[in-house]
Automatic annotation (TrEMBL):
Biological source species: Metasolibacillus meyeri
Swiss-Prot/TrEMBL keywords: Acyltransferase, Metal-binding, NAD, Transferase, Zinc
Stored NCBIfam families: PRK00481.1-3
Entry-linked InterPro entries: DHS-like_NAD/FAD-binding_dom, NAD-dep_sirtuin_deacylases, Sirtuin, Sirtuin_cat_small_dom_sf, Ssirtuin_cat_dom
UniProt-listed PANTHER family: NAD-DEPENDENT PROTEIN DEACYLASE SIRTUIN-5, MITOCHONDRIAL-RELATED (PTHR11085:SF10)
EC number(s) reported in the record: 2.3.1.286
Enzyme class: transferase
Deacetylase sirtuin-type domain mapped to chain residues: 1-230
Protein name, entry field: protein acetyllysine N-acetyltransferase
Length: 230
């Protein structure tokens, strides 16, 4: 921990990359966890462009459940600490695979949401933004197109600008802290390989040997320990 603090203080360019494990302490169910009714069906068959086009009933039910599950979810202390580090100039960039918007809700700025956001919706046909309430009511766009959340579905490309921005931060980084992501999903899984800086991996369940430092622990709890004597 002491080494991580030293790196954090001496690094002139620190990037934080977060995944599902960052949100679990806020009560957001991991997409891949064993609980939740959608475990009866593989998300990879629902969170897809195919389901959007040919099984909208299921697609809509899946996302309605996920959106409703976020209703009372708020950022935890770990999100606050990262936003605070950004404010203090200890962190230069935050990128996330999470679609829940919790970093921004905690006050972090210019967060790159690499897998999009579930907090807003648009029309699949004309691209026009629409009210969330209209999606939840299963209304169609004025053009007749289907409404959908602004998440990146399987089969879709990552948002180019967010990806390029994060990539350039990775290349410039002296320190990269990866929190709560299993790094199973391509191409985000490649990002930690794009830096010449020190790398830290914080995860409760998974270990990755190619990082300079591994911390086995919950995201929020670990960040609190690091922050305590920073
Ligand atoms: Zn439309």
């Amino acid at each position: 921990m002491e080494q991580i603090r030293e790196w954090l203080k001496s690094s002139k360019h620190t990037v934080v990359l977060t995944g599902a494990g960052m949100s679990t302490e806020s009560g957001v169910a991991d997409f891949r966890s064993k609980s939740g009714w959608w475990q009866q069906i593989n998300p990879r068959t629902v969170a897809t462009t195919e389901a959007l086009a040919s099984n909208y009933e299921l697609f809509h039910r899946f996302y309605t459940a996920r959106i409703n599950a976020l209703e009372h979810i708020v950022p935890h202390e770990g999100h606050m600490i990262l936003a605070d580090w950004q404010q203090r100039g200890l962190v230069q960039h935050i990128a996330t695979q999470n679609v829940d918007g919790l970093h921004t809700a905690a006050g972090a700025e210019n967060v790159d949401e690499l897998h999009g956001s579930i907090r807003s919706v648009r029309c699949q046909s004309c691209g026009q933004a629409a009210e969330m309430s209209r999606f939840l009511a299963k209304e169609a766009c004025a053009c007749g197109g289907r409404l959908r959340p602004n998440v990146i579905l399987f089969g879709e490309n990552l948002p180019q600008q967010a990806w390029n921005n994060t990539l350039s931060h990775m290349k410039a980084a002296q320190l990269v802290i990866v929190i709560g992501t299993s790094l199973e999903v391509y191409p985000v899984s490649q990002l930690p390989h794009m830096t010449n800086g020190k790398t830290v991996y914080i995860n409760l369940e998974i270990e990755h040997s190619h990082f300079d430092r591994m911390v086995k622990g919950k995201a929020g709890e670990t960040l609190k320990i690091i922050d305590a004597s920073l």
